[in-house]
Amino acid sequence: MTIHDHILTENDFVKQDTLKYPFEERGLQFGDGIYEVIRVYNGNYYLIDEHIDRLYRSAAAVKIDVPYKKEDMYERLDDLLQKNGIDGDAKVYLQITRGSAPRDHAFPDQTQANLYAYVKDLPRPDTFLRDGVSAITHEDVRWDWCYIKSLNLLPNVLAKQTAKEHGCYEAILHKNGEVTECSSSNVYFVRQGKVYTHPAKKNILHGCVRMRVEAFCKRENIDFIEEAFQVEDLAYADELFLSSSTSEIMPILRVDGQTIGDGRPGALTRKLQKCYEADAHINEEDSIFTSQTAAE
Ligand code: PDD
């Protein structure tokens, strides 16, 4: 999938091949920056308010001045889709760093933040959404402030790579046996019709889709319990699923080679996937609930 040509920067739009940063750039050298990944369906942003709010919260937490006021950010992000003629399913990656400056750990005295945002086509992961995925468990060695969507992703990258080497989609992270989230998604445990997930404390990312999962559960009278579960509890899960802007709500059917529940996507996960499709205004022809799923 190619990146569409018009890139939003801290000043204005530029063509992709003119985007240049010096080596002494705080994001490159220190991971000194923050980012967002925003889903687009049929040319429209999904959960844009949640993403923009979190972007400004992350920026404030690491003392980076966002180059645009919030109202302007909405406008610029809309322009990004317009300029690139996006009318299908895509994702926007937006990153803001503290800027370019001679390398020194302390903040530079005078630097303007560097911002870029690009858009890339992204079909829905239909097969995984229908058939479910496998995961491994992995120690969570990240810092304590994972609620900040920071560029420092090395522990996440290493965990995801280990999952990949085991033929798995995700790594379920745990601190001393307590499940926090996955390497790039939130994770949920279902038992006796109740959904359990780690509380939205500082040590997990407060996922935008997670907020919707909570809202769907409330609406459907499903108990949504913000209580951390243990790795050893996984053996007793009726269902397990993960959520993120790119993975949506995805069933997990095996963990460390052990089958979860009856080894098929569960009814509660399916219900939440339906809620998601309705909420994101997915067209009927793009729904995962086609004949293939109905035949299950
Ligand atoms: N990841 N937890 C982590 C560690 C994440 O990186 C993500 C998102 C989530 C889910 O957040 P949301 O529902 O707002 O997408 C949870 C994005 C997709 C990424 O880094 O590519």
Automatic annotation (TrEMBL):
- EC main class here is transferase
Question: Gene3D superfamilies given for it?
Answer: 3.30.470.10, D-amino Acid Aminotransferase, subunit A, domain 2
Reading the lineage from the top rank, the first entry is: Bacteria
Q: What are the BP-aspect GO terms?
A: amino acid biosynthetic process; carboxylic acid biosynthetic process; D-amino acid metabolic process
A Gene Ontology molecular function term for this protein is: pyridoxal phosphate binding
The catalysed reaction is: D-alanine + 2-oxoglutarate = D-glutamate + pyruvate
- The answer, when asked if Cell membrane is one of the entry's keywords, is no
Which key words are in the record? Aminotransferase, Pyridoxal phosphate, Transferase
What the entry lists under CDD domains is as follows: D-AAT_like
Q: What is its EC number?
A: 2.6.1.21
Record flagged with keyword Transferase: yes
Q: Which cofactor does it need?
A: pyridoxal 5'-phosphate
**InterPro entries assigned to the protein according to its UniProt record, in alphabetical order:** Aminotrans_IV, Aminotransferase-like, BCAT-like_C, BCAT-like_N, Class-IV_PLP-Dep_Aminotrnsfr, D_amino_transT
Pfam families from the UniProt entry: Aminotran_4
GO cellular component labels: cytosol
The text of the family note is:
Belongs to the class-IV pyridoxal-phosphate-dependent aminotransferase family.
Q: Quaternary form?
A: Homodimer.
Q: Report the protein name in the record.
A: D-alanine aminotransferase
Instruction: Supply the source organism for this entry.
Output: Halobacillus litoralis
Q: Which gene encodes it?
A: dat
